[in-house]
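Q: Focus on the chain.
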Amino acid sequence: MAALLEYLPLILFFAVYKFVDIYWATGVLIVTSSIQLGYHHFAHGKIATRHWIFFAIALVLGGLTILFQDEQFIKWKATVIYAVLAVSLIISRYIFKKNLVEKALIGVLKSANEKGDTDAPLNIELPKHICEQLNLMWVAILAFIAGLNIYIAYNFSLDFWVNFKVFGLMGITFVAILITMAKIYKYLPEDQS
């Protein structure tokens, strides 16, 4: 359910674009993003900062798209989000001395452990050099995606860009997740791997 809710705005954006147009799709994206915020508020009692940021970007760029009837604004949404994520990883690591990729990985592994059949607490130590490599890898991937999105937005048709936004970005992200899993696999406890 949670995974579906994460991708619901994107799925509905794609469907409405295919059946109506980019402006209706943008409106649906904004509405479903706000519903997503409401769900997180009522289900978890709080809304994660990333959801607020993603909603604000969708609201501003989507609102400008609808207001000016110009698809160029919504095309920037993915670029802005991925660039913000890349910059956040850099600033967090080198200014605040926190590795957000490491923190996210530990959180995901602990969550998976809590949902598993084992009662044993998760005891995982990822080597710092692996976490540093993963942080830099994700910075590079996110920056690449940000640049690639805007390149495709201005050099290909709107149809091609929408398909890339939905399937291409998801594919690149999936490959990055697989690479991340491969790099940490040997450090997982036996029952987690």
User: Anything to note?
Assistant: The chain has a mean pLDDT of 89. The chain is about 80% helix and 0% strand.
